[in-house]
From TrEMBL:
The keyword Transferase does not apply. Its EC number is 1.11.1.15. The active site is at residue 49. The lineage of its organism: Bacteria, Pseudomonadati, Chlamydiota, Chlamydiia, Parachlamydiales. Keywords: Antioxidant, Disulfide bond, Oxidoreductase, Peroxidase. This is Thioredoxin peroxidase. It comes from Estrella lausannensis. Coiled coil: none annotated.
């Protein structure tokens, strides 16, 4: 599979559900200027999926602080999304989720992002961080049993924002407030010396 890193995110126009209402045409272009976390999940009314969608909603304030918006996408219809949104969490639903949930009924979005499981007709748990200019800067794809970490997604947004603002790169396990480094041999040596001290 060819990587999408560094390339413009494939745009689309699709039906979606936002804050309990059906939207006829949602596109990435509408959100240019924000960080977008586009994440795919296999199906509505399943098991790991609601835990992920709820976790992204519970981090709403953290995404807002970063001028970032999560968007979920699956091969279900917008009607299925709406029914799932109207199902209480205690019954396996995702009531209270407010960010866009995109319907990829013809599977073209999952195909364009390289996360479609051809035989099953559903998507892997793909996640893509799209920068303010529409370029994909980070991607991760999990198999179906493996739920994602929202705190890691927030860390990656912080790292990208830090790089964009300061021109410094973020070493392993970097978190906001920790030392970054200039992308030079001297910068690496300085960081290593500070890390040892």
């Amino acid at each position: 599979m060819q990587t999408l890193i560094g390339k413009q995110a494939p745009d689309f126009k699709a039906k979606a559900v936002i804050e309990g209402k059906i939207v006829d045409q949602l596109s990435l272009a509408q959100y240019k200027g924000k960080y977008i976390v586009l994440f795919f999940y296999p199906l509505d009314f399943t098991f790991v999926c609601p835990t992920e969608l709820i976790a992204f909603q519970e981090a709403h304030e953290e995404f807002a602080k970063r001028d970032a918006i999560p968007m979920a996408c699956s091969v279900d219809s917008h009607f299925s999304h709406l029914a799932w949104l109207n199902t209480p969490r205690q019954k396996g639903g995702i009531q209270g989720v407010q960010y866009p949930i995109i319907s990829d009924l013809n599977k073209s979005i999952a195909r364009d992002y390289g996360v479609l499981m051809q035989e099953e007709g559903i998507s892997y748990r793909g996640l893509f961080l799209i920068d303010r200019e529409g370029k994909i800067r980070h991607m991760v794809i999990n198999d179906l049993p493996l739920g994602r970490s929202v705190s890691e997604v927030l860390r990656i947004i912080d790292a990208l924002a830090h790089y964009e603002e300061n021109g410094e790169v973020c070493p392993a396990n970097w978190t906001k407030g920790k030392a970054s480094m200039k992308p030079t041999q001297e910068g690496l040596e300085k960081w290593c010396t500070a890390d040892i001290a």
